[in-house]
Here is the input.
Amino acid sequence: MKNAGTPCANLVRLIKTHLVSPLHTICFLRTPTATEENKKKKRQPVVAVDGPDLLRLGLWRPTSSAGPLVLLLLWRPKYYKMSAPRGEYGYQNTNDVFEEDVVTQTQSSNHFSSLLWMPHQQHRSSLISTDPNNGVRARGHKHIIPYHWQCENILKSLGLYQVSQMKVANVDSSLLSGLLERWRPETHTFHLPVGEMTITLEDVSCLWALPITGIPVTGMSDGNWEGLVNECLGVGAWDELMKPKKRPSEIKKSGYAINLKRLRNRFKAMPSGQGEPTPEQIHQYTRAYILDLFGSLLFTDSSGDSVPVMYLQFLRDLNTPGQYNWGGAVLALLYRNLCWGATRKAKMVKTLAGPVVLLQHWAWSRLQTGRPCPYKGWAPDWGRPDSQSCPAFGAKWCGAIEYKQPHGKAGVKYFRNQLQDLREGNIDWEPYKQLWSRMPSRVHQDAEFFRARVPLVHFWIIEHHYPDRVMRQFGYRQAIPVLEPLPEDDVRKLHKYVHSSMCTTNCSCVFSVPY
Here is the structure.
């Protein structure tokens, strides 16, 4: 670093007042000469300084959550975007740098925070200039197998009752595509003009009331599941329900996934026989109902027509079901799919897999961009009938909705511009605060774990939860995170583990989780 001069008092005052993020970059401009002013030349960015550098210089000071996260000192906004990838906007030409007019001169005019190790050429945002309409599809959710009241107690004991009542959930693929371009795999956050934001364990708990504590969702990912399928779903279920292979071979069935269409046809209604259903029939129907929920909402794949058999191992004993961390597993899968979708290598991926409805509910709850309104003011019956059965916050978006601002045909470019124009007034930092007292009891029980910095596990997937980077979402002042995210080598090592490399392997025995 090279000290290039003393800034004016007003500039230093503005920096001390408004800069609160140690990650993002401030870009300084030289003062135009009288000749340039007369010719109305545009000022060019000449140097970039990030938060840690300002901290060493004594210029960094956190402020209250009400203030802007970063002050952009720019003549034209197009030259710079918050946390823009290396070399995308501004400071390409170093010939215009005048040392007497800048605060700090970096070693390179392309200075970039060391936390963001992914080069711009590898990030999905590098495709914007060549393919501005490049977006992804996201599947909505529609629960087909009918809910039956005799499943209620089992669903509550598993922590899946509130999310099971979300029958239909729509998604806005263009909005999700715009958010995907701003996802950073290094920090598991969206880099927005107002700073960093992300989906946290608090959002998983408040939106869907899923348990965020308990036994990690991991175990055998592949094996001979025929006996388990017939035991849990009835005699002959293996031959009837398994998904056929796309490529014909000696083995006609995949042995890994259950076809959702066949599952729904087999369990169109609760079996009754000659009277009331037996406990075994109730358990089989409940397992099918949960698998339908997993395959269409919680653990969706890109095809949307199947659900892996491996989840049946957690539903084997429904008399004393295990307390599994379904919320952590859902968030791990969402993080992994966002990380994969944010890389340039995934440009041919047209469908964003995973629990994208959770991402949609999060975006509508916290961002005003693209947010619909419940049709004719409809709202769930908050807090009723009791604390165990009352709806979660996500139920707000599962009824009929209408858009005040038409944007259905605008595409990803519309939301790209809307996200770029986000300001403090467009963010709901604490959307659940007003309804906190009427949230399900499970949400209150898990509240002490909302800000836990922990690994999230879903079979072979391990992603990390960094709530200390988004403290304003919890109503706190944003300070410099004490611990940095995982280094590049550890992240890339974890991302190398995929299902194909875990075949016939117990995933719970192969990982030494770095922290």
